[in-house]
Amino acid sequence: MNVVSSCRILTLSQYVAVVYAILFASGVNAEETAGAKPKVATVQQMIDARTDVWGDAAMRQPNGASYEFFKDLLPPVRWVNTDFRHYPIVLSAPAAPEKARLISNGSAINARANKPPMWYEQGTPVSFFVGEDNDPFGSDLSRLETPAYQDGFLPIVTINYRSKSKNITYREESFAPVAKEAAASGAVMVRFTTSGSEGSITTRLPADERFTVRDHAVLNSKGRCVVAFSKDWTWIADNNSLVARKTPNGRADLVVFTRPVAADSPLVGASFDEERRSCRAQWDVLFSGKTRLKTPEAIVNNAWPSLIIGTYMMAEGDRMHYSAGNAYAKLYEGECGDTMQSVMLFGHLEYAAPMLKPLLEFNREDTKFHVAGHKLQLLAWFYWMTRDASTIRAYRPLWQPSLDLILNSREQETGLLPKDRYAGDIATKVYSLNSNANCWRALRDLAAVLDELGEDGEAQKLRGVAADFRKSILAAVEKSERRDVKPPFIPVALLADEEPHDPLTATRTGSYYDLICPYIIGSGIFGHGSQREDWLLGYLQQHGGVAMGMMRTKPASGQFENEPGVVPLYGVRYQMALLRRDEREKALVGFYGHLAQGMTRGTFIGGEGERFVHGDKDGRSFYLPPNSASNAAWLIVLRNLLVQDWDLDEDGKPETLRLLYGAPRRWLEDGKRIDLVKAPTAFGKVSLHVCSNLNAGRVDVEVELPPRPVKTVLLRAPVREGWIVEAAEIGGQRVNLVGLDAVDMSGMSGILPVRFSVKATK
């Protein structure tokens, strides 16, 4: 039950009471006699509810859900189940093979986790202490500031820690240098400075290992350098420590090597300032010529580039890994396919073909149909985003086996694929609606791509097989669904009498149903806006499947046994379905819920799942951070708030472009701007410049439409509450409104000015 041995262990009810008391004291749950703040459900009421009571409350706020509404409802995510307790921040050069971990309270680099097999050990642990009493850096949270990135998103991390007895603030600044040798060694450069009074910093290496010092280098027993240090440090051999006593604003620099280097390596004498400039420049290059986005919310502007950087720091070469520093530092088809999509959506198209190759090579026998379906869907999506026919043809030996597997595996009697695992972690073999639906989608999507490549015969064959396959799936669903509950329950296990799960997280299977169901929704097997799609979404929303717009779960074993929480990364297809159906306000609940309660504060790091109450008053537990698919889920939704390219006629080929359809209304408050430049779509790149001048009676939008033909293009002006759109002009010509707040730009091209005339309603 406890996060780490040094945390006080609280029962669930005790912890909820503590959190509730904090929330009540801060006014989150109190009705103000003179204010407009409504009553919000308690933590326990939220956990017990079948519906998303906090999400519903957020939508009732002026202009809907917001980060501010969610951020104080729970303590921040902070704790991991390791000896170092505080979550790690991965530091590396872009896609470097060697990673280092900075402990987020500044206490250490490459600290021992001592939690095999889920956490890996890496490098020589180096710990930091301050003051004459050797106070562990960052140990007292009341004196610790939240880690901060340079400019809000660059991976140059600053952590400030105040002395407990003197007027001293210790500043620790860390980053991974990006030069080739530094990247290969997993180097981290660290600088300590002090302000206020003179201070003391101690850097300690393991007491049970033997080290020697030569020319400002600490060498291990093999004569390799594990730490290099500036002249400001003094080596204390008795306890394997370096000590620096600094006047205010003095500096003491270190280089910590995850993979030890030669004692005469140039890195031993590397300049902190020069390497920091190079680090910043290298990350700037990663964004050069890519998508640029600026919204009216600073936290969003910091989060999106930080998440992309974090994703590249988890990657190893062309492999977009699920995590780093733990057992998830590898590929998973569906999850890492989302990771690849997220960086492509923000303009990183030139890296797409190399990133695609490992995902096409990936195989997992236990989930081979799930893998095959998502592999081919990713291939088709890659084609529409890049129109790179040569890569599709070149990679055919990699994807053809997945196609053959689907085509040759269907049973004659049922028309379905053979029984497959219920989920990756549930070995029970079932006729999986998830596997069948996503393999059907793969055939349909690939047929459309082969049409574009001129393979008419093969495309026609696949369309025929896909149509027959869909009939078999729908027939099995009709035999399996339960209409005696509301809304009707559609099982994952077809033809198996799977009981409706209520609430969904009451059982292990139900928790996994909650994570798998969005994959079924995302397959589109039932059709856009269909009754069965309504049922799937409604069952999640009404039977305990959603909290703060994210998918709920309650593990049945392991460190988080019976601890309720959310898994944000598996909600991306749920939220995308809401956007496709133009249920913007519900989608924004997940967008802001994830930002506020599915990531760390200031550093935007997510895990595979976050707990509601497992932790203490200072923070909650989360599982195996960082997580690239968590990054991807939020990035994909952010992009689709502003730019959506859809296949709404369901022929496998995108034909609809919707702009600003999911944008929060608060982003169009008077004087606010949105700038989006070079955003890739299935039709080419699009740019938007939005300026809200409500008090002048207008919202002005400059749209640069993509170069390829689009059947339908719609642009919305989602003005804030209390305002309506009266009329619109495109290029100075009056046009009719579509619905209440959009215009139809179909058939137009180039750069066009659009003006929405607005007025206040109260």
Brief characterization of the structure:
This protein is of the alpha+beta class.
Overview of this protein structure:
- The protein is of the alpha+beta class and 762 residues long.
- Among the domains are: 82-285, Beta-galactosidase, Chain A, domain 5; 656-760, Sandwich (Immunoglobulin-like).
- The chain contains 19 helices and 37 strands.
- The strands form 7 sheets. It has an 8-stranded antiparallel beta sheet, sandwiched between helices. The chain has a 7-stranded antiparallel beta sheet with strand order 18-29-30-31-37-33-34.
- The radius of gyration is 27 Å and the shape is globular.
- It starts with 11 loop residues before the first helix and ends with a strand.
